[in-house]
């Protein structure tokens, strides 16, 4: 396989000058060095004693080999379906990679690969449909794996969905279904201890790896490995990006550059971050990144305990679909948004319009053009419109959409988020306010 780096482009578009980049580099020098040192490991291998140890996942051969063996152990020829029961960081990364690479017609075009079914919220219609599916389509326990994922082991939505699904399958297949259960959670969580007591399969999430940073751990890659994705290539792409994004030279470090650009524009009042993907299959990747940015950056207090109420609002746009609904807002509305375009031209295998059109007078200059040509024309047209309207943006260019490029993208955005949080003076790894609604939910359930 040929490795091609994804590139961050910013000159002439994002309103940031070299001195600002150099100032950001100086401010983050010690932190970048710290992350770089973690990624080197030591004579004993890699440890997971720090939140930033997430950079070790693509580099740690012991961890990777253990997960690959677990996937091999749980795979069988009859496997058709993997039920992923999780929410937020336990679900979004897996879904992003699955939908990016399998597309909208997965059920029709990948007949020989197991399908992942995401059960990610307590929606009555969704759960009713899942129950119907399990009763009508699953012929035996060997056709399914149920992967319940909860870092804390106490996520209300996840536990509720699991219990409903387990009850359906237990009534159909008896205790045999227990052999098809895998629980991914923190070691010694309530879920871990309960599953261990029952002798069920477990996968450990390292304690310091937060849910939104866990996509390259068993959280994301165990179900994808079962579904015949090449998870080693995800790791390879991420490992290459770690080398680039722990470089001390800001001009050689795309995560550092992107973090500084976002910080400068936020300081100038642009508090909305528009992730604009010109590949519709990346829409779920945007949802993954929205959680990463929102939970990591939005904080009531900074690292010194001062009340700051920092936050950047992430939004997702899809090209060219959303140009027909929100382009006026972006081009003529308030200038409070910073945009990062992401585009993979995907020239290879692009369908082509015929030279002899059925209705040739509707749109000029499209006959004989490829679908890639048309999307590229729209994409460059949007960038020119942004320039003419003095709207700042940066750009991520992918050669293709593959395990390699997506592994790079995930790691780039995680490191960028860590650096951005440091520039803003907040903790990238906690989310204290998330507990507010969870606490209130538990109190309401007591009273029902």
UniProtKB/TrEMBL annotation:
Q: Which GO terms describe its cellular component?
A: cytosol
**Where do the TM regions start and end?**
none
> A GO BP term, please?
glycolytic process
Q: Does the keyword Isomerase apply?
A: yes
Q: Name one GO molecular function term.
A: monosaccharide binding
What is catalyzed by this enzyme?
Answer: alpha-D-glucose 6-phosphate = beta-D-fructose 6-phosphate
Q: Which domain of life is it from?
A: Bacteria
Per the record, the pathway is: Carbohydrate degradation; glycolysis; D-glyceraldehyde 3-phosphate and glycerone phosphate from D-glucose: step 2/4
**Sorted alphabetically, which keywords does the UniProt record give?**
Gluconeogenesis, Glycolysis, Isomerase
Q: Which InterPro entries match?
A: G6P_Isomerase (IPR001672), Phosphoglucose_isomerase_CS (IPR018189), SIS_dom_sf (IPR046348), SIS_PGI_1 (IPR035476)
Q: Does the keyword Magnesium apply?
A: no
EC? 5.3.1.9
Family assignment from sequence similarity: Belongs to the GPI family.
This one is known as Glucose-6-phosphate isomerase
Species annotation:
Candidatus Yanofskybacteria bacterium RIFCSPHIGHO2_01_FULL_39_8b
Identify the taxonomic lineage of the organism of origin. Answer: Bacteria, Candidatus Yanofskyibacteriota
């Amino acid at each position: 396989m040929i490795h091609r780096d994804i590139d961050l482009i910013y000159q002439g578009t994002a309103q940031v000058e070299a001195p600002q980049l150099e100032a950001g580099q100086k401010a983050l020098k010690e932190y970048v060095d710290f992350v770089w040192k973690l990624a080197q490991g030591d004579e004993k291998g890699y440890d997971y004693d720090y939140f930033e140890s997430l950079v070790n996942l693509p580099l740690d051969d012991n961890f990777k080999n253990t997960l690959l063996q677990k996937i091999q152990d749980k795979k069988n020829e009859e496997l058709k379906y993997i039920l992923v029961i999780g929410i937020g960081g336990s679900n979004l990364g897996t879904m992003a990679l699955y939908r990016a690479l399998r597309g909208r017609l997965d059920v029709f075009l990948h007949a020989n690969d197991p399908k992942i079914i995401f059960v990610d919220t307590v929606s009555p219609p969704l759960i009713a449909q899942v129950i119907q599916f399990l009763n009508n389509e699953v012929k035996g326990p060997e056709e399914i794996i149920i992967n319940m994922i909860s870092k804390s082991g106490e996520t209300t939505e996840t536990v509720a969905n699991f219990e409903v699904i387990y009850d359906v399958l237990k009534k159909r297949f008896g205790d045999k279904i227990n052999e098809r259960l895998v629980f991914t959670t923190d070691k010694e969580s309530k879920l871990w201890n309960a599953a261990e007591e029952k002798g069920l399969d477990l996968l450990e999430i390292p304690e310091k790896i937060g849910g939104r940073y866990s996509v390259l751990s068993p959280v994301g890659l165990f179900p994808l490995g079962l579904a015949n994705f090449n998870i080693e290539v995800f790791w390879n792409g991420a490992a290459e990006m770690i080398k680039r994004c722990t470089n001390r030279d800001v001009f050689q470090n795309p995560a550092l550059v992107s973090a500084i650009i976002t910080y400068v524009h936020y300081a100038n009042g642009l508090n909305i971050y528009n992730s604009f993907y010109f590949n519709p299959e990346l829409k779920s990747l945007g949802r993954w990144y929205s959680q990463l940015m929102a939970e990591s950056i939005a904080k009531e207090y900074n690292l010194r305990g001062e009340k700051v109420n920092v936050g950047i609002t992430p939004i997702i746009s899809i090209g060219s679909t959303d140009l027909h609904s929100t382009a006026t807002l972006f081009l003529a509305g308030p200038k409070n948004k910073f945009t990062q375009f992401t585009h993979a031209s995907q020239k290879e295998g692009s369908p082509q319009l015929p030279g002899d059109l059925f209705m040739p007078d509707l749109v000029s200059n499209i006959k004989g053009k490829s679908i890639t040509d048309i999307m590229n024309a729209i994409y460059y047209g949007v960038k020119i419109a942004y320039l003419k309207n003095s709207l700042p943006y940066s750009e991520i260019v992918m050669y293709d959409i593959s395990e390699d490029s997506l592994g790079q993208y995930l790691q780039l955005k995680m490191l960028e988020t860590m650096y951005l949080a440091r520039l803003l003076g907040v903790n990238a790894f906690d989310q204290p306010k998330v507990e507010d609604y969870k606490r209130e939910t538990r109190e309401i359930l007591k009273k029902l």
